[in-house]
Amino acid sequence: MTYFLLLLTLYVWPFGQLLSFSVPQLSFTLYFLDLVVFLVFLSLVFSRKRKEIFLGSITKPLLIFLSVAAISLVFNLKQGISVGLPLSFFYLLRLIIYPSLFFAARHVGINKLKNPLLISLGIFSLLSLLQYLIFPDMRYLKNLGFDDHYFRLIGSFYDPNFTGAVFAGIALYFIAKNKLLFSIPFVGLLALTFSRASYLVFAVGLIYLLITNKKTKLLLLLILLGIIIYLTPKPFGEGVNLLRTFSIFSRFDSWSR
């Protein structure tokens, strides 16, 4: 059962916001992925081997972190009621159930999940590319509470930073495995996100691999990233301007609140 639910998780994840629905009474968005992960969590909790499954060096630090998060919520109940206690509780529940994916994958065996994971990443990449090619103008999403993006690859999660981080991670994985040709398509997809944070993640990871592996040819991938960014169409808009400051100040404003 756990293995089947993990497969379902991998095949549901790439669709992101496309498989989400709002809960008007509770004023938050619920993802189908949340439901599947919750079932994964239950399958482990009620497993006869649950002690063996949850045993590990990460368990104690994780329990401490979750306890601190729960205590923090209790101490802020008064404020939580004013800003939305159900939403706060829901985020805490997510913190509790999502680590179960690590324990489930370890229990089932990582090797069994390699091919499904590749398929999952392939679906995510294809959906992201189709979004950029067919729906480059996603500014209408602002009416739904998302950031407005124009000629940026934002993927099925409607978030160029998250999407870019995924592609940066995949590219770095293939580079670390000395499969440079496999990394090139993901470097290209990363470039289309125009996410400076993701570029930074990729650059830092690449420099680390360059130092540890002593392969200066890896710098060619940074040059390739720069070339793709330079050649990519950039219609008028703040989103594709890498020198933009609006997003930085808007984040500071959000944090100050």
What's the SSE blueprint?
Blueprint: H1 2-12, E1 20-23, E2 28-31, H2 32-45, H3 50-54, H4 59-75, H5 77-83, H6 85-97, H7 100-108, H8 110-134, H9 160-176, H10 180-193, H11 196-213, H12 219-231, H13 246-256
Helix pairs in contact: 1-2, 1-8, 2-7, 4-6, 5-6, 9-10, 9-11, 10-12
Notes on the structure:
The chain contains 13 helices and 2 strands; from the N terminus they run αββαααααααααααα. With 257 residues, the protein is mainly alpha-helical. It folds into 2 domains: 1-108, no CATH class; 122-257, no CATH class. Strands 1-2 form a two-stranded antiparallel sheet. A hairpin with a 4-residue loop joins strand 1 and strand 2. The model has no long low-confidence stretch (mean pLDDT 85).
Rg over CA atoms, rounded to whole Å, is 20 Å
Distance between the termini: 44 Å
Q: Give the overall silhouette.
A: globular
Q: If helices are DSSP runs of H or I spanning 4 or more residues, what is the number of helices?
A: 13
Q: Mean of residue pLDDT?
A: 85
Q: In which order are the strands of the major sheet placed?
A: 1-2
Q: Main beta sheet: strand number and arrangement?
A: 2 strands, antiparallel
Kindly report the oligomeric state of this protein: single chain
Number of separate structural domains: 2
State the helical fraction. 55-70%
User: Could you tell me the strand content as a percent range?
Assistant: under 5%
pLDDT < 50 runs, ≥5 residues: none
Secondary-structure class: mainly alpha
Order of helices and strands: HEEHHHHHHHHHHHH
Strand count:
2
